[in-house]
Amino acid sequence: MQINRLPTGAHYLMEGIRLITHPQLRAFILVPLLINLLLFVIVTGVLIQQFDSAIDWLMSWLPGWLDFLAWILAALVALTVLVAYGYSFSVITNLIAAPFYGLLAEKIELHETGVAVESEPLRQMIPRTIGREFTKLWYFIVRGIGIAILMVVMSFVPLLNLLVPVIGILWGAWSMAIQYVDYAADNNRWRFTALREQLGGNLFSTYGFGGLVMLGTMVPVVNIFIMPAAVAGGTLYYIRELSRADTDT
């Protein structure tokens, strides 16, 4: 398989979907799936309640002479809300389920390579993995605010406003790749900055993988199951394209 290609990155997720059904790995996705199911009910309920209000608020700000743009703006808002929904669902779920996803990534790496990562007691792994999630969350918040400001400014500029959804999609795909490849990288004690550098050096695989994961998180019900598969796919990506890199750890 050729590396650093959009189809290759997307294929990692498809392999991950197949991999989590393996008899030796099924037990490690049960708790994350239960967490996903509970949060799915909560987050999706909030989305349904707020979506109509967001559309009405936007239309109230649209001058009458621009009514012909209403359907375009509604479509852009719908796409933005879906991206935000998938992103929020992923962040909240991963923060809670991080130790279980770390364990799943560890078992997948052992299954694929036959080499076990350095083990540690659960009482040490839980605070370490949750701490790593907060590191990622801080990164997502700080960069996300800057990108959100840029998108708001661009939305008032004719023609440039058409790029707003593209920027949102690229940011979402990059974030999803970081989120799900990081479980294997963290298990192998990679620095967070080293992971970002390596993902940036393999942008096509990164966006192929992260883009398909983001699409899955935007689809209700599918997003319940996509996250364990994304952990599996991200671990495969780490093993096949990133693990030989010099990370100065």
From TrEMBL:
One of its GO terms (molecular function) is high-affinity sulfate:proton symporter activity. This is Sulfate transporter CysZ. One of its GO terms (biological process) is cysteine biosynthetic process. The lineage of its organism: Bacteria, Pseudomonadati, Pseudomonadota, Gammaproteobacteria, Cellvibrionales. The chain crosses the membrane at residues 27-48, 68-87, 137-157, 163-185, 206-239. GO terms for cellular component: plasma membrane. It comes from Exilibacterium tricleocarpae. It is a multi-pass membrane protein. The keyword Cell membrane applies.
